[in-house]
Automatic annotation (TrEMBL):
Entry annotated with the keyword Secreted: no
Protein name according to UniProt: Glycerate 2-kinase
Name of the top EC class for this enzyme: transferase
Record-listed E.C. numbers: 2.7.1.165
Name of the gene encoding the protein in the UniProt record: gck
Keyword Iron: no
Length: 445
């Protein structure tokens, strides 16, 4: 995978560590570890299926990593696969043999996604009890297959998505709302088909909650209309949301429209869910690569979450603490952490959570020699930008000042992108084909 990193003495180490982390998260390899076939016998995790029993085996799916998963599944199933369709983010297409790939908008849903979602639902709905539906799910699915309930338009959903994503809400909150406005999310896809279902999931939600990843189209949903309304009010977007959306959620709360299927519902007995990989794959491989590079390596078991700038500051502050000699890790070292932060976006700036994390970290490590912090989104696109993240060093703040760049303002205006670009601090990977949250590194040589 080509990595364009800014020049620095740490360049080759960062390249190796990040490269190893991204390679380890390859969705195809992850799927091949979980799904095996010998003749007509299919093994998925601990479950076995006799493919002779099924009239048809169809795959549907959505998410940034779904195309690599589909490629691997085609290899495993060979002639047993009757085709299907998956939806990926525009620009993430890769060649497939039997599975149709549709590109659609992310993070804001678009018309292509709406049409794709219709096709996907129709494909699932035509299947019967003697068919097997394999669902490939990864982060991004919620936006890629919008299926708004009656009375809510695509434009309304686009507006709501914009509001939710900028509100600082955690993904569980965002998706609790989305699940109550959809005919596909929150277990509705499972309800719409009579086929046996196997859902293979590459998780981009810390904690791997099935109901949160891609809004759990084949998972029962414990959340309620009432909670969705409370979340929107707490995040101060209720009054800004389109009237059609408020109306639908209020009707749901009164019991005038049906709730999403709840845990315990009989339908889900014929659904198998398998998490094929998550953030940890990347972290472990990155840590191993750092060790191989001769660095003392610490892998954080606690994910970094919360506001990106705060998380960046806290993570980077460890460098100063360790350099004062208070710590137990001596140079050269590499701290490896994962997680997924959020940004409460105000204004019209351009950036993403990894870039914001890096800018905040730059302030914290300023003046420390041979010290770097890198933050990257494993999918290769940080926020609505064309970069994966950024790397900053102990001299980044000075360099910014010399160039007349105000990093503090870049943070308050959520405008990290232009500053990092001017500083040549961006990490560019292009679409990586995977999506397992973020990777954060603190490197001191
Ligand atoms: N100007 C900005 N500065 C910082 N973060 C932003 C900005 N604009 C959007 N974001 C963040 O980008 C996130 C969406 O980015 P994306 O990388 O696509 O997320 P995901 O990987 O979860 O799909 C939003 O949650 C929002 O917080
Ligand atoms: O699809 C989704 O619901 C989320 C979480 O899985 O992914 P993303 O944040 O990438 O849109």
């Amino acid at each position: 995978m080509p990595l364009a990193l800014p020049a620095s003495s740490a360049r080759s180490i960062l390249r190796r560590v990040i490269g190893a982390g991204l390679r380890a998260a390859d969705p195809a390899s992850a799927l091949l570890k979980c799904v095996h076939r010998a003749g007509h016998r299919l093994q998925v995790g601990h479950r076995r299926y006799d493919l002779r029993f099924f009239d048809r085996v169809v795959v549907v799916g959505a998410g940034k990593a779904s195309v690599r998963m589909a490629q691997a599944l085609e290899r495993v199933l060979g002639p047993y696969l009757d085709g299907g369709l998956i939806v990926v983010k525009t620009g993430h297409r890769l060649p497939t043999k039997r599975v149709t790939v549709i590109e659609a908008g992310h993070p804001i849903p678009d018309r292509a996604g709406l049409e794709a979602a219709k096709q996907l639902c129709a494909r699932a709905a035509e299947l019967g009890p003697r068919d097997l539906l394999i669902v490939l799910l990864s982060g991004g699915a919620s936006s890629l297959i919008p299926a708004p309930v009656d009375g809510v338009s695509l434009a309304d959903k686009q507006k709501l998505t914009q509001l939710l994503l900028r509100s600082g809400a955690a993904i569980q909150e965002v998706n609790a709302v989305r699940k109550h406005l959809s005919t596909i999310k929150g277990g509705r896809l499972a309800e719409a088909t009579r086929a046996r279902i196997v859902t293979l999931i590459l998780s981009d939600v810390i904690g791997d909650e099935l109901t949160a990843i891609g809004s759990g189209p084949t998972t029962p949903d414990p959340s309620t209309y009432r909670e969705a309304i409370a979340i929107m009010k707490r995040r101060r977007i209720w009054m800004k949301a389109p009237a059609s959306i408020r109306r639908h959620l209020e009707r749901g709360d009164r019991g005038d429209v049906s709730e999403t299927p709840k845990p315990g519902a009989a339908r889900f007995r014929r659904v198998q869910h398998e998490i094929i990989g998550n953030n940890e794959m990347t972290l472990v491989a990155a840590a191993q690569a750092a060790q191989r590079a001769g660095l003392r390596t610490v892998l954080f078991s606690t994910p970094l979450v919360g506001e990106a700038a705060q998380a960046g500051k806290t993570f980077a502050s460890l460098a100063a603490r360790l350099s004062e000699g208070n710590g137990i890790v001596r140079r050269p070292y590499c701290l490896v952490a994962g997680g997924e932060t959020t940004v409460t976006v105000t204004g019209r700036g351009t950036g993403g959570r990894a870039q914001e994390f890096a800018v905040a970290a730059a302030g914290e490590i300023s003046g420390l020699h041979k010290t770097w912090v890198a933050a990257i989104g494993t999918d290769g696109t940080d926020g609505p930008t064309d970069v994966a993240g950024a790397v900053v060093s102990g001299s980044t703040l000075d360099q910014a000042k010399r160039n007349g760049l105000n990093l503090r303002r870049a943070l308050t205006q959520h405008n990290a992108y232009p500053a990092l670009r001017a500083l040549k601090s961006h990490i560019v990977t292009g679409p990586t084909g995977t999506n397992v949250n973020d990777l954060y590194l603190l490197l001191a040589l």
